[in-house]
Amino acid sequence: MFDALTRQPDDPLLALIGLFRADERAGKVDLGVGVYRDETGATPIFRAVKEAERRLVETQPTKAYVGPEGDPVFLDRLWALTTGEAGKGRATAALQTPGGSGALRLAADLMARMGTKGIWLGLPSWPNHASIFKAAGLEVITYPFFDIPSQAVLFDRMMEALAGAAAGDAVLLHASCHNPTGANLSAEQWRAVSDLIAEKGLLPLVDIAYQGYGRGLDEDAAGLRTLLATVPEALVSVSCSKSFGLYRERTGAIYAACSNSETALSVRTNLAALARTSYSMPPDHGAAIVSTILGDPALTADWKAEIETMRLRITTIRERLAAGLSARWQVLTAIREQEGMFSLLPLEEADVLKLRAEHAIYMPTSGRINIAGLKTAEVDAVITKFLSL
Ligand code: LMR
């Protein structure tokens, strides 16, 4: 019976983890999967996370199920962190999910249930976006978002394309720290796209997975907040993987901002029913950590200070890379203005494979680099190897 199945290729991004691990060369450099690393090459556990875990070990009264919706206190605290004033008092349906991917899949399943036909996706995007939407049965309609050779956001073309969307279509937007380009919309562009979405009756799905790694915690959510203040309905997928360093704990949430509380209740029951037939109930350890941190002003302050240090480290590496790489690719001065973990270099697949084979530099064949994976001490050597291509 199993022979009805054909073997599937590994996920190309996740396969890099194994390839890198198996490489025995000294000085190998991992610019692959989006994981923050410090100057020693370690992915640290935030001090506040460790402290929250210690408290949970001592005080958590039970491991009984949390229910399909998850913990409402976690959901409220994370919503406040993400949306600030824009989310206050808004009728919202919320569910704790297994990571940001779980949130995106629930959003896609909900849209399929609502009869949403197409979801508009700017290219390039995180490869799993299209896969998740297609797996839920949605039609993915693409539009140009970013031009790699000029490192420019194609805003006019994006607006032209979205002007052709049908009422009821969905549109995926990255809140900030765009994956894979690091290029983001300006405040003015967020206003314009929010107005267009409201005018055309589109449903925005905003993916926020890197809050705190770009320009700052509030700054990285500013576009999303503008959108929420403009549109009657929106979906927001939140990942705590990077912002709280909880990758393997699979911590996230899906929120639906609704125009009234009756609709919010209906959306919540649908999300809960979808979760029940998928993974039933969400993992809770990561959510309990986030809730503990956000419920304690001292822990929150410490977490904010630590993520700010990480953000500044990335900014410094961006400056060094921009200065070094622009000697060969003038346009790569843009790396300085881009933000978050990623930039997308104008490389051919052959260049990427050569860097891997000859210099043990690992990155996906798209040319995306995880800047947060670089140590300061490696930057000059990595630049030299890129310039030697
Ligand atoms: C990435 O893009 O590298 C991360 O979001 C990890 C993942 O799940 O792909």
UniProtKB/TrEMBL annotation:
Example GO BP: L-phenylalanine biosynthetic process from chorismate via phenylpyruvate
Pfam families recorded: Aminotran_1_2
GO CC list: cytosol
Listed InterPro entries: Aminotransferase_I/II_large, Asp_trans, PyrdxlP-dep_Trfase, PyrdxlP-dep_Trfase_major, PyrdxlP-dep_Trfase_small
Taxonomic superkingdom: Bacteria
GO molecular function, one term: L-aspartate:2-oxoglutarate aminotransferase activity
Cofactor: pyridoxal 5'-phosphate
Aminotransferase class I/classII large domain mapped to chain residues: 28-385
Keyword tags: Aminotransferase, Pyridoxal phosphate, Transferase
Subunit structure: Homodimer.
Family label: Belongs to the class-I pyridoxal-phosphate-dependent aminotransferase family.
Matching NCBIfam families: PRK09257.1 (NF006719)
Identification of the protein by name: Aminotransferase class I/II-fold pyridoxal phosphate-dependent enzyme
Species this protein is from: Shinella zoogloeoides (Crabtreella saccharophila)
